[in-house]
């Protein structure tokens, strides 16, 4: 019966890799949501600017224009903040990707070692069976 002495380490590394995969997927999902929010902000600002341009063709009170421009600047500041959030999440995603690749490599190394040991074990079984068959053959010839 084959026994891999590092099986518990391999199992642990698999668990770590699975956890990192989940973390990576969560971060990727979060990045997608943050980018969506940024795009909505950009669209809202562009819509407001086009609305102000249309309203500017007609006569607009200066207080209304000031309110629109104030709100547009508010959205622009929010966009800048959101771009920083997106940038931070992108960096976090890259860090998670690197961690995941490292964990995957560590697991694969152990799996390669396990496969090598299993191959050696099977080879030793074949050699042992061959010796037993040879001994049985020798005993039959003597009888």
Structure write-up:
By secondary structure, the chain is mainly alpha-helical. It has helices spanning 7-57, 62-142. Helix 1 packs antiparallel against helix 2 (62-142). The longest helix is centred in the C-terminal third of the chain and has 81 residues, at 62-142. The protein is rod-shaped and about 120 Å long. 2% of the residues are buried.
Q: What is the end-to-end distance? A: 33 Å
Largest sheet: none
Q: How large a portion of the residues is in β-strands, by DSSP E?
A: under 5%
Indicate the mean pLDDT. 93
Q: What structural class is derived from the secondary structure elements?
A: mainly alpha
Q: How would you sum up the global shape?
A: rod-shaped
| Residue windows where pLDDT falls under 50 for at least 5 positions | none
Compute the number of structural domains: 1
Order of helices and strands: HH
Q: What's the alpha carbon Rg, rounded to whole Å?
A: 33 Å
Helix content: over 70%
Number of strands: 0
* SS field, number of helical segments: 2
Characteristics:
single chain, 143 residues, mainly alpha, 2 helices, 92% helix
Secondary-structure blueprint:
Blueprint: H1 7-57, H2 62-142
Summary of the model, kept short:
This protein has 143 residues and is an all-alpha fold. The chain has helices at residues 7-57, 62-142.
């Amino acid at each position: 019966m084959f026994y891999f002495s590092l099986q518990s380490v391999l199992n642990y590394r698999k668990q770590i890799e699975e956890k990192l995969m989940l973390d990576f997927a969560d971060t990727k999902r979060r990045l997608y949501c943050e980018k969506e929010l940024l795009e909505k902000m950009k669209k809202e600002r562009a819509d407001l600017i086009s609305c102000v341009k249309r309203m500017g063709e007609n006569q607009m009170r200066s207080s209304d224009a000031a309110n629109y421009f104030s709100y547009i600047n508010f959205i622009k500041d929010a966009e800048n903040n959101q771009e920083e959030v997106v940038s931070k999440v992108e960096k976090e995603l890259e860090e998670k990707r690197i961690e995941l690749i490292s964990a995957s490599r560590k697991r694969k190394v152990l799996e390669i070692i396990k496969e090598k040991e299993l191959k050696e074990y099977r080879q030793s079984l074949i050699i042992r069976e061959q010796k037993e068959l040879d001994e049985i053959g020798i005993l039959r010839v003597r009888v």
